[in-house]
Amino acid sequence: MTYLRNCWYAAAYGSEVTEAPMARQLLGEHLVFFRTSDGKPHALFDRCPHRFAPLSMGAVVEDQIQCPYHGLRFGTDGACAYNPHYAALPKAARVKSYPLLERHGFLWIWMGEAEADESKLPADFAFLSDPKFKTVFGYLKVRGNYQLVVDNLLDLTHAPYLHPAFAIPGVSLEERFANTTTELVRERERVIAKRWRLNFPPNGPTRSLFGFEDERMDSRSHMHWLPPSLIYFDAGASRLNEAEELGLCLPAIHAITPETDRTSHYFFGQGRNMLLDDPDADATLFGIIENAFHNEDEPMIEAQQARMGAETDVMALDPVLLKSDSGPVTARRTLAALIEAEAIGAGQAA
Ligand code: FES
Ligand SMILES: [Fe+2]
Questions:
Q1: Ligand 2 centre from 301 Cα, in Å?
Q2: What pLDDT digit, counting tens, does each position of 288-317 carry?
Q3: Taking the domains of the chain in order of start, what are their residue ranges?
Q4: Is the pLDDT of residue 168 over 90?
Q5: For residues 137 and 14, what is the distance between their CA atoms, to the nearest angstrom?
Q6: Which bin fits 309, alpha (ψ -120 to 50), beta or left (φ > 0)?
Q7: Do 233 and 252 contact (CB within 8 A), yes or no?
């Protein structure tokens, strides 16, 4: 499977990576992550070039990773830095080293051949480092192709069927659909699937968790897709005719990174601009979203993948398309075009 490579993927939470080596597979490649004594994180190809032992089974010794089999050590640039058997360092003994960026609690990895470009990390996720918001984080390993997870997020018409907790008390499904306005917006490489309901009863958690007693509010849930598979979710509810930022803002990150062609790492962080110092709100909000993603979305995506068998591209199976598929389909086409452009660029550079 061909992936977009000259871009940033979420590789791990920063807290996961310590001086003890950690193995993780991304885009089908086995990597080892570790920190050196200065606190910096590093990522290397997780296969010793001598007899192919996983370096992640070794240890970090003097800021170098030591192979567990015959003790060659590799520096953070991937070059062999110490050979305990002979003084000479074998020049060919080198593993690939991957640029990392530690930002907003995540380690972001650049797996392409072009020079890592910090400016390509979307600015949308700055809310994660903004004290005006409190965020709870989670992680799922999904046994499904990463684009199935993106499809799920970009088409929220599944919500009333898979997520009963988000029901609006006293409002029928038909009324809910009839009062939902949608729009698909493209801004360069960004695809935004917008949904909103104006002057309509808010959903259950808006009342029960955040205490709004208004009968009617303006609610929004806008999914911003950014290549390759990052989602910034701009959701919230505000009093009628009130500026959105004065109301309840629930910005979220959904960062999906392929592990293999049929398994995905799914990192999610749910922010809020109210009840910031309330641990009960942390637990309740986390419970709601964990239940939705883990118990409701994840089994569905895994069941889809199981029905698709070895196929990884849903479009190859000639699916029936509904109007609500415009977000997922546009994102898929945009990504396919970027992957193709990257391949052409690489061909020209060769
Ligand atoms: S396999 Fe790594 S030193 Fe031999
Ligand atoms: Fe869902």
A1: 10
A2: 999 999 999 999 999 999 999 999 999 999
A3: 14-98, 122-343
A4: no
A5: 12
A6: left
A7: yes
Distance between CA atoms of 218 and 241, rounded to whole angstroms?
8
Among 214, 221, 210, smallest CA distance to 200 is for 214
Q: Which ligand is nearest to the CA of 151?
A: 2
Greater pLDDT, 208 or 22: 22
Which ligand 1 atom is nearest residue 51's CA? Answer: 1
Report the pLDDT value the prediction gives residue 165, as an integer from 0 to 100. Answer: 83
- Specify which residues 82 forms β-bridges with: 73
- The number of the ligand nearest the C-alpha atom of 53 reads 1
Range 37-59 burial, b when 16+ CB lie within 10 A, else e: eeeebbbbbbbbbbeebbbbebb
pLDDT tens figures, 63-97 = 999 999 999 999 999 999 999 998 888 889 999 99
Give CATH superfamily name and number for 122-343: Naphthalene 1,2-dioxygenase Alpha Subunit; Chain A, domain 1 (3.90.380.10)
Determine the average pLDDT of the residues in 162-170: 86
**CATH 3.30.70.100 matches 14-98:** no
Question: What tens digit of pLDDT does each residue of 199-217 get?
Answer: 999 988 888 889 999 999 9
